[in-house]
Amino acid sequence: GQHILSVNQFDLDAITQIFNVADTMQVYTRREKRTTVLDGAILGNLFFEPSTRTRVSFGTAFNLLGGEVRETVGVSNSALAKGESLYDTARVLSGYSDVIAMRHPDAGSVEEFSKGSRVPCINGGDGPNEHPTQALLDLYTIKKELAFHQRDINGLHIAMVGDLKFGRTVHSLAKLLCLFKDIRFTFIAPTELGMPDYILDTITNAGHQFNIQDSLDGQFDADICYQTRVQEERFPSKEEANKYRGKFRLNQAIYTQHFKSKTVIMHPLPRDSRADANELDNDLNQNPNLAIFRQTDNGVLVRMALFALALGVENKVKDYERAVPWHY
Ligand code: CP
């Protein structure tokens, strides 16, 4: 199996295959059927940085395919705290696992780790660099949300809002969207937290268009509004991050003022619910265009597909009845 380190390794055919397999996983995430295709397989789930949904959805995806999950959480609980290299850690842990999912605060760390690994490694976020599985589940969600409105991804207008400098999910998603046709990007961020130049170059080189704004002024005919959190943990200090927290809030009134009625609202989550940040207000929770929890549900489908493909079992999945009823 191949490592999954960056969205750069996917083309449209690969994405279509992942999404087709993800579609077939719905009977398991809805608990209508069960499968044991990964019976006996072990996932090493290594999260050296905080995570709720990526860590738990990788684990859930693996469990739903019949496999077992071993977790290591935090640098201080591992021998990395004693100065062991990522290479050695990978060499060791890959002897205990069939596949590894990993998050680490340093850009390039998962790639470095993968060099010592004897099993496929999946990047669950490497510092400010990339979060490829999030981008795939975001794209899968965009495809489904647009299909609901009888649209497809080509010709999409997406507004990305907030901390576009340190938000790795927007980097990966922007690169993935470049594979499609006639994508329009509107980047709404404080000048200091704008989209990195290398992403802007990728967009231009792929023949797409972008606009840059430093405030939420004006009307956006965006199909998708992708909101982000100020990535406080990547700033030199909390005070520095606080300068930007709460600057690009979205609530129902602002949404109605600036976006069209069908604009789908996305956010990789977690959203910062503290009163001084609150970038995505709870008053949007009843808005039918709020797709944030459809994103988190889709994350399990996409990660199941990635495990099935990485371990070469996508055509071996068999269904069994579940003894335990489930009300989805
Ligand atoms: N979207 C995302 O990566 O969330 P977690 O940090 O909870 O994994």
From TrEMBL:
Aspartate/ornithine carbamoyltransferase carbamoyl-P binding domain location: 2-143
Range of residues in the leader sequence: none
EC number: 2.1.3.2
Pfam families with a match to the protein in the record: OTCace, OTCace_N
Keywords, comma-separated and alphabetical: Pyrimidine biosynthesis, Transferase
GO biological process assignments: 'de novo' pyrimidine nucleobase biosynthetic process; amino acid metabolic process; pyrimidine ribonucleotide biosynthetic process
Keyword Secreted included in the entry's annotation: no
Coiled-coil region(s): none
InterPro entries given in the database record: Asp/Orn_carbamoyltranf_P-bd, Asp/Orn_carbamoylTrfase, Asp/Orn_carbamoylTrfase_sf, Asp_carbamoyltransf, Asp_carbamoyltransf_Asp/Orn-bd
A GO molecular-function descriptor: amino acid binding
Domain of life assignment: Bacteria
Gene Ontology cellular component list: cytosol
Pathway per the UniProt entry: Pyrimidine metabolism; UMP biosynthesis via de novo pathway; (S)-dihydroorotate from bicarbonate: step 2/3
Chemical reaction(s) catalysed: carbamoyl phosphate + L-aspartate = N-carbamoyl-L-aspartate + phosphate + H(+)
Residues annotated as domain Aspartate/ornithine carbamoyltransferase Asp/Orn-binding: 155-309
Job of this protein: Catalyzes the condensation of carbamoyl phosphate and aspartate to form carbamoyl aspartate and inorganic phosphate, the committed step in the de novo pyrimidine nucleotide biosynthesis pathway.
Family designation: Belongs to the aspartate/ornithine carbamoyltransferase superfamily. ATCase family.
Protein name: Aspartate carbamoyltransferase
Lineage of the organism: Bacteria, Pseudomonadati, Pseudomonadota, Gammaproteobacteria, Alteromonadales
Gene field: pyrB
